[in-house]
Design brief:
By secondary structure, this protein is of the alpha/beta class. It is built from eight helices and 17 strands. Strand 1, helix 1 and strand 2 form a beta-alpha-beta unit.
Amino acid sequence: MIRTIIIEDEVKARETLANMLGMYCPSVQIIDQADCVEKGIKSIEYHDPELVFLDIQMPDGTGFDLLKKLKTPNFKLVFITAFEEYAIKAFKFSAIDYLLKPIDPEDLVETITKIEHIIEHENNQIKLKALLENIETISSEVKKIVLKTSESIHIVKVKDIVRCESSSNYTQFFFNDGKKILVSKTLKEFDELLSGYGFFRVHQSHLVNTQYIQSFEKGEGGFLVMTDNSKIPVSFRKKESLLKLFDKL
């Protein structure tokens, strides 16, 4: 059983989530509930849960305030939120799970199933640290992104990523220091995440950080030369958009 605490200020929302967990997620055991930051902190410190469902907006602060006040948060975390673009962006960059209100039963079951299969020793403190750093700057400049491989969790600076390359359902990251990280997510997911932060998808299989473009060889088809000396093909349909991008740089 997954020992779980729900921290949500709305009574109806809290009861609905508890009922849904009881109905659809038999592996979850609700050990306590709280309706504000202060009570939530006390509950977590007393019960030492394995999983916390955490609302963002509460009467005495936010879920982020709660996390900042905990000494060593060591639980799996699912944020509950109405749609807040800046927060959701931070969750995605930090690999933190979230559910949108009103909660859909299928999304809830999918989230719990994923949590059940998370690597036993996955370091949640690493992800929470990245989240708290990103939440301060997500609207202007992303600092870090969490990349999970089959063996470990990496927190990397977004500005250090030179390019990403698709490899079936995997994405290979290339960094300015020569390091590589292979992640079991599609390039499409990272394109959606990074496209607003200086990255451009020049080809079905390639996403590049525009600050590392060295030159564009127009030739037949055309390709980019990156600062790591890699040559990245540019698809015909992306060529015009790329040239317009150069005009803005």
